[in-house]
Amino acid sequence: MANDLVFDHVTAGYGPTVVLDDLSLGVGAGECLALLGRNGVGKTTLLLTAMGHTVCSGGSVRLGGVDITRWPIWKRSRFGVGLVPQEREIFPSLSVEENLQVAARSGGFTVEQTYDLFPRLAERRRNKGNQLSGGEQQMLSIGRAMMGGPKLLLLDEPMEGLAPVIVDIVIAALHRIRQEQNITMILVEQQARLALEFAPRAVVLVRGRIAYDGSSAALLDDQERLDSLIGVRSEAAA
Ligand SMILES: Nc1ncnc2c1ncn2[C@@H]1O[C@H](COP(=O)(O)OP(=O)(O)OP(=O)(O)O)[C@@H](O)[C@H]1O
User: Which family is annotated (predicted)?
Assistant: First the structure.
């Protein structure tokens, strides 16, 4: 599989703070990757570095063979990098439909396609962003990213704080996006089992470096390793 996204010896962080330390990673076109690790290891920073929100002090980031290391955020966005941020970043005073329309770009989802993916949003189309539940906001955040026509979709803990029934809706939508669109996905998720069951490949970060890169199924089967890398046992006990 050709590499779609490449991190080539990337060192990146915030101002003088280095978070990613000489990190190299290739993600194939259309591949789906679970990005895991304990709090503060650099998962969000990796997504933000792909999107252009961090300071990259070493190495390069390439997408589809093009060096995008020095590109501003808007240019990456136009080139097909889509981020579903942890904070969701819905416009509170715009309606659901307006939130979608401002993100529309040719080649992306139409409003109707987004409503087909998340029928709940069609029911709420005239509600303002600040009148939505957390689950509806998350659906809107994913829908908005899809309106931009991403080639690479970066999802930062999209299941955080959602009721199990809403998690099921979001997971089903992500499965559908994977089946119907040839989109490369990176899913950061605190609920490791959920992510490992969704994505065939897993990368685990420890202090800004890759400590595991391989099959999700193999990691799911290796309780001891899971526990030492991400503390799944304590997560299950919580
Ligand atoms: N804007 C910032 N300025 C300086 N340091 C930051 C900034 N954002 C994050 N950091 C630091 O970078 C490190 C990695 O943070 P990051 O958010 O990437 O981790 P994470 O793995 O996504 O963690 P979490 O699961 O808690 O979201 C942490 O030590 C954090 O304190």
Answer: Belongs to the ABC transporter superfamily.
